[in-house]
Design goal:
Number of helices: 8
Number of strands: 2
Strand order of the largest sheet: 1-2
Largest sheet: 2 strands, antiparallel
Structural class: mainly alpha
Order of helices and strands: HEEHHHHHHH
Distance between the termini: 56 Å
Radius of gyration: 33 Å
Length: about 230
Amino acid sequence: MNTPTLTADHKVVVVHRLGAVVVALVIATFGVLGFVGGLGFFDTHGSPVLGLSSNGLLSTISIVTAVVLIASAARGGRLSSTVMIVVGTLFLVSAFANLAVMTTPYNLLAFRLPNVFFSIGAGLVLLILGSYGRVSAKLPDDNPYRTRTDDESSEDPSATLPSRPRTRAEMRADKEMAEAARAAVSGAATPEQRRRLAAIDHLRTHENRRAEWMASAEQREQPHDRGSAMA
């Protein structure tokens, strides 16, 4: 099965692109309001913006992050998905890193507890939206992120197993192939066995190799049969 095409109107792509834009607008609003308030760039105490604490540096980072999310959404669903997963991870890391320095002079982003909670929430939202339809143990047939491995693993495992011989001729062919293979490994194969093994070596399934082996046996017996009939 071929990998489905990642079209712009696919449900998974729409969720990724729309999710990136919505989160970007929220973050951009926070950043713009911080700039409008004339906040100090490295003010570790910060000023309230939409219930959070912010300074000039955090406002700048917020706007840059929003621009990256919108740009990725404009480029395509796969890119926006990847960017959301990366940015969401960075949000979670930032939440705990800034929590550790919140009461120290190194609180360069002017974080307070509401900022930590917001970063954790935004990070989880980005991870969920970015992973939607992409990270799963079993993806549906029309999913654009379904890979060849997914296709192969979804097939019936019994389909890859050789079928049991149904006739005496097939049983004899399997036995002869096995004996020829063992003889080839030990170096005791006859020229005829090596020739017939080489003739089926390129075939991928056991059924095809068996059919070719039986066909070659019939061709070998035909001259003998014609000679007997003429006598």
